[in-house]
Amino acid sequence: MKGYTILLTGLFLCFFSPLKAQISFSFMPEIQGRTIDNLYQVRIGNTGARQTVNMTIIVTEAKSGAITTINTPAFELMPGMNTVPPAAAYNSAVSFGNNKVATIVRQSGFFPEGDYDYCFRLYQGGGHNGDILAEQCFSYNLQPFSAMQLIQPYDGDKICDKRPSFSWQPLLPAIPGVQYRMVLVEVKEGQQRAEAMRMNLAIINQKQIPMPVLLYPSLANPLEEGKKYAWQVGAYKNELLLAETEIWDFTVECEKEETSLPAEAFRSLEDLARGNFYIARKQLLFAFNNTYSETTLSYSIRCLTKPDQQVKKLPKVKIGRGLNQVVIDLSENNSFTDGYYYIMDVKLPDGQQKQLRFIYKQADQ
Amino acid sequence: MRNICERVLLAMLCPLIWLHTPALALENIQQPVPDSLPQDWSVQPLTSQPAVKNAVVDAINRKVTNIPVAGTDSLPFNRLGLSGLHNGARKEFTQYLSTGKTAAGISRMNTMLTGMKDTAKRDRYLDNKLRGFYALRQQQLPGGLTLPSAPENELQGISWKSAYSDSTAMTSGWWNEGVLKDRLTIASVPIQLDYSTLSGYDYSNTSLRDAHFMKFSFDREAYLEKVNTQLQKQYDLDKYFLEDLDIKSSLKSYAGQKLASLNVPADSLERNISADQLMYLDSAQLSSALLRNHDPSSAYYQKVMELKKEMGGVKEMNSMLGAQKQVNGNIEGWISQPGNTSRMGADLLQMSFLQKLLLNMKDLKMGSIGADASKRTMSDLFMTGAAGSFLKNNKFIMLAAGKSNEMGVQDAGLQSATGTGSYGMQFIRMGRGDIGSKAQSHISVLNANAKPQNSNGFNTRAISRNVFVGSVSQQCSLGDLGTIDIELSKSSGQLGNNSHQEAASVSRSAASHFLDDIWATASVGLAYNGDVKKWGLSHKVYLNYAGLGYANPGAPFAGRGTLQYGLMLKRSWLKNRAMVSLRTDIRNLAVSPVSDNKRRSLQYAIDARYRFTRRFSLSMNVLENTLRESAESLKYTAFLNRKISFTSQANGRIGGKSFSNSSTLGIQQLDYTMPDAPLRSLFINAGSMHTFMAGPGMVVLNAMYNRDLKDAAVYNNQLNTEAGYQYMLWKVVSCGSSLIYMDSKDVVTQIGLRQQVSAQLLKRWSLSISVDCRQNLKNTAANYYYGRFNTAMSLNYQIK
Predict the structure, then answer these.
(1) The pTM is what?
(2) Least confident window among A76-90, B451-465, B516-530
(3) Any idea which UniProt keywords this protein has (chain B) (predicted)?
(4) How far from B40 is each of A138, B54, B311, B594, B720, CA to CA, in Å?
(5) CB pair distance less than 8 Å for B454 and A32
(6) Nearest residue of A to residue B560 by CA position?
(7) Whole domain around residue B310: which residue ranges?
């Protein structure tokens, strides 16, 4: 009798097992179990015929308990691999548990840290009390992805390098097979960076980056000075984009040698000495005739605004025979203060002494 | 529906009251931003300055021919204080007031001018019209005061770019970008039309993926320029501001007339007061002069003293006369800016309602647009829809509506699993002050509904979801100390379609649950920005918080579950020769609402630069960025990026030829957790770019070396060198030719040639082509990045 029972049980199992095995679920909780929308990426394998079904997804967390229950409306399950049709997904009824974890899921759609069970139950027909065609649960101890952050070049930075390196924080937790994709575009005049990111031809649109660093691709044309660029990094696995950073921008702008001072005419030292205060914009310009041999100009400068202030480190000025056009650069000399009054005593080679009064001004003011 | 509306309003009001923002405090709403003009006689109402008004009336009388006109005036000129206008001027002024008005409009105007209500408004109106009439360039009326209505079309430029690269890691080999820019002007309203297309061939799918973007935007600058041009054409604005009036003689003549009009017996004329005395004596002096000959109770004494009061004291008189020159200068500067004068356009030109409305429209665009307001309202959002902002009398309103798609054509080959999704949304922001202006105070509301994305080959699933976000943004000025920005935001999400549930009475509107789960769904931003000019110091301190449940579809890349704070200090010395900046960013990232586990990210960066001479400067960058995991049992550094680099920039002349050099030397530690094993590497980076003039062109030498001293990293062990020459051909073609050697250790070794040609053709066309061909000297299976061929071509037709 006992043997008979075992045989019957075996036959029963053999008979019903293939029926049960007609429908199977394929789900990757490490990727698809992170947001509520992605639960619908579950794939339903159907070796049987076409039929009308509906699905219930129940997510529970080990400590907090019930998180969410999703009931889809009826949809057609076709032979082969199926996903939940978008319309059925959109019109699902969703209820949530009464705990903090469920609150976060309800508000943001993201699952926070936890030990989750994801159960998929497929019912026959349109109601949730029909026959259960298949049920399968997946467990995963979920660590949410870190918010990826760009590092360098910093947002709004000005850099001179036309082939810069880019770096960002990696996606955590590290999942096998995760790679990075970086997009760099030019932001044209009048564009917002979000527009540039979508509408412009990318200068770099590089996938398969294994490290959170990218050296500027050797094959790509260098960046151009004066232009603004926007960049963004995404982490993906296979064809699934898992996380994206903010969009940052930077401008390529090298420090320029200060623009040359406006050409000013060289006025005769005679005139200047007779006149009122002369405005010296970062430099003193004057001209005089020298009938004597080459020598070094003998001159000194005193501050009138603050007489105790010493004017030091004046450059040596060489003068030749004939007309001399003298330029004395004062911009690098710390003795000069914007708006202060000065007087220069010059002893010309012929023995004449001249005095030139001037106001020192920064050129850009 | 009414129920929902009430709840929405309640939800908006509650946080406002809670936060006690001045945005709602009506009594705090300030007067419009005062004009940048000096508040003196030239801009003050003529009605309060009878002497000046009299001068204007005299000037008008001289300008307009006096033709005796039969009949009575249609306006009460005497009551309006314009009795001095002669008949010809009255007729033309009446005509000017009626120009472009319908019968109903004229009737309304007459009612206002003849009625007794709101005399202040009437005076303002009259003041503006009198000045306008005086400033008219041509006296032929009516006509000419409208904006040109003929439609115009101006093609501004077209461009096409194509690029091909065989690097396998590029998403697509071929990319094309086409852009067309056009400006259509209807009724003087310029609309910018931008069409662009982006397409690419995907390696996995040989079909072309393309996207088309159309954007219509109101060109504010061009519009104001048009209004200004028309205004300047019809009016002499110098005259509007009474710049050509000889105030001194006008005042004297006014005083003389007034004195003469005082009925004094002829035999006592010599004892009377002269115009000069009236103007230049103060009240006490005038009184004693009068008392010599008149009784203080006499009518003459009383009338003269009244006249003195009307004309103002000596101090005011002198400052008025003395300030005229300076005022003229200020006004000249003011009227040269289209933004200022166009505001006068609304009063002086005949403009339709729409044309007047657009004068205050800051921004209006439709189509494929980016929308930005602030970090917690709308930020870096790209959508298909419309957005506009309006600012008048310091009152601001911004409206936006559209649909955002999470993925674009450049994401070909990917499907989203980020959970941020695509949304249809409506947004309103309103309050006092412009965005970014000091003393702005705004409230914003965003309502969004999740939508699946089924375009560009993307097919995402989304659950029906409604998200409601309410925000308050405030900027306070601390004067010289800087500004404080405060932004508070709260989201509320409702998921799913409850139609199958019994609890159908539960509202699905997120707005009705706005006050639920406050801390989990709030986001707060505080920032202080300031500078001390004397010390060359600028600084910023900030604090941001976002709850784990905060979701804002208007800011798709905003963080959740973060507490972030940091500071930035920047100081320069010695006339900007030395500069140091310090930046720290600390972020605590929560992972769960029920545990204390978190991640902590710390970054600090120091940048320093010293300019030794005009031709040589040295800079340093120190950076450390770490990400630490902190769980109950485990605490470790999951990521560390530590770097120090020195860069020099030099330029000058060697042997009479100019050169420039930029060189970098750095060391970088990069440790992070990989799925299989931790990676610990130590890179040295060295790079130099040197250019110098040689012959007719310029030589460019470039070398970059990056090497992992620990041999742990597979990639980024690279030597890249280039030697090139840039030169001009036939004066219009600029060329660059480079030889390249690139070695990526254990991955690939290449030599190559890059050729670039760009030319300006027929003034408006420009063409640029670059080709880079490489030969692999060594190649391995690990080569994902380094292709052998890259070409790009761009053709531009630019009108402006």
Answers:
(1) 0.79
(2) B451-465
(3) Signal
(4) 80, 17, 15, 66, 67
(5) no
(6) A147
(7) 46-146+240-332
